[in-house]
């Protein structure tokens, strides 16, 4: 990541921290069709959103989720990239 005068560099200068991005996060699911059930059971926001849907549309939602996972499937396992950045800072 370019340091320049962007937010990472500003954070380093103002706090005295050395900032690095050590890993890319992925969410591993046992299969691409596990996403719907995982969202339904494990996340409050998506679980509530899915519970509020008409039962007639849930199969189409599940199919769209499974289809969206397919580009990230290898050997039957879905490794989904996470839309998050893990930042580690150490005092210089």
Quick synopsis:
With 92 residues, the chain is of the alpha+beta class.
Topology, please?
Layout: H1 7-15, E1 17-20, E2 26-29, H2 34-42, H3 44-51, H4 58-69, E3 73-74, E4 77-81, E5 88-91
Antiparallel strand pairs: 1-5, 2-4, 3-4
Helix pairs in contact: 2-3
Shape: elongated
Q: Could you say which structural class the secondary elements and strand pairing correspond to?
A: alpha+beta
Gap from first CA to last CA: 19 Å
**What is the count of distinct domains?**
1
Strand content: 15-25%
Query: What's the total count of β strands?
Result: 5
Sheet of most strands: 3 strands, antiparallel
Run of helices and strands = HEEHHHEEE
Count of runs of 4 or more consecutive helical residues: 4
Question: What is the mean pLDDT?
Answer: 83
- What would you report as the Rg, rounded to the nearest angstrom? 19 Å
Q: Which strand order does the major sheet show?
A: 2-4-3
Helix content: 40-55%
Q: Residue ranges: pLDDT <50 for 5 or more in a row?
A: none
Question: Could you characterize what this model shows?
Answer:
By secondary structure, this protein is of the alpha+beta class. The chain has one domain (7-91). It is built from 4 helices and 5 strands. It has helices at 7-15, 34-42, 44-51, 58-69; strands spanning 17-20, 26-29, 73-74, 77-81, 88-91. The strands form 2 sheets. It has a 3-stranded antiparallel β-sheet with strand order 2-4-3, with no helix packed on it. It has a two-stranded antiparallel ribbon with strand order 1-5. Strand 3 and strand 4 form a beta hairpin. The two termini are 19 Å apart. The model has no long low-confidence stretch (mean pLDDT 83).
């Amino acid at each position: 990541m370019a340091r320049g005068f962007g937010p990472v560099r500003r954070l380093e200068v103002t706090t005295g921290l050395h900032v690095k991005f050590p890993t890319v996060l992925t969410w591993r699911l046992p299969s691409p069709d596990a996403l719907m059930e995982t969202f339904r059971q494990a996340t409050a926001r998506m679980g509530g959103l899915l519970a509020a849907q008409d039962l007639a549309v849930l199969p189409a939602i599940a199919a769209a989720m499974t289809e969206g996972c397919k580009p990230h499937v290898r050997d039957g396992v879905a490794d989904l990239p996470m839309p998050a950045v893990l930042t580690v800072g150490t005092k210089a």
